[in-house]
Specification:
Immunoglobulin-like; 2 domains; about 20% strand; elongated
Amino acid sequence: MNAGSATSDLWWFVAIMTVLGLIWYATGGPSRPESWSGPFIEPPAPIGTGEIYGAGHVSPPASPSLGGPPPRTVSSTQFNGLKEPPITVRSPWYGQVSIDTGSGPYEIQPNQEHIALEANDNNSAPITVTGWLVTNGKSRPDGVTIPGGTKLFIGNSANPATVPITLTPGARVILVTGQMGNSDPYVINANFLTNKCTGYLDALPYYRFTPALRRACPAPAKEPNIKNLENECYNFATHLSSCHTPKIERDVDGYEFIDNVSGLSSNCRAYLQEHFNYNSCVKWHEQDTDFYGNEWRVYLHRSWELWAPNREHVTLYDQSGKIVAESAY
């Protein structure tokens, strides 16, 4: 082979290798997995371990632009704010009770802040919720255990024994964070089931139930023995508003006024006092077949708000700690 031919062959070799190099670099070059996936021998100790690595032991080179430790796996219970709730076993009552966040998103006064739990209309049986737990969504959840109540509230008297709160299909319980502050004429000192007379409580001056109690008291014109009243008293009584307690006052001269009306007899006053107020209504109508309502009022007696104005997650647990219902806003 002459010198010219050898030189020509060398130039062809260099040209081919240059083209192959450009193609290799354009298709990924040193960053391609094939560049570091083959079998190699680690440098001997102490520089390396001396072991063989390759296929089945792939360790891609670290990117200099992504320094620092690898991402940390965080469990769901470590999230704050809008955290993902932990995976919890569902209660046998899951889906049978729903949560209404009520005034939780906007109310800060404990005696006005409330949420509601409602039993579904299609439930097959009543559900007892006393002993269940309801919690908020703070990083360290705060919650309350649902207490019992007295079925029939009696104002300014010893109330009947406390019983578990049981929700029939379609019934609900209102959970008020604080308590009722007014005590005139009745101290609201018990959790109670509403009835056809509790509208008298809602209509009292300075009382503020939240949400308002249903005013569906017995019609004044249908009160027992009302037809035995004299005409003037009968006309006055039958025109009273439902759930209204007449206000009886005396002026400085001793004249008596009932709702600013004078001249009504003492017998009329006695009848009005005997029929048109909460306790009297209970006395006359407790045995009515439609006396009780389907809503419990429960006071939790806390002095600070329980539910956040936003990013809140309300969870209801049964007595075994299993989730019954959740609601978020």
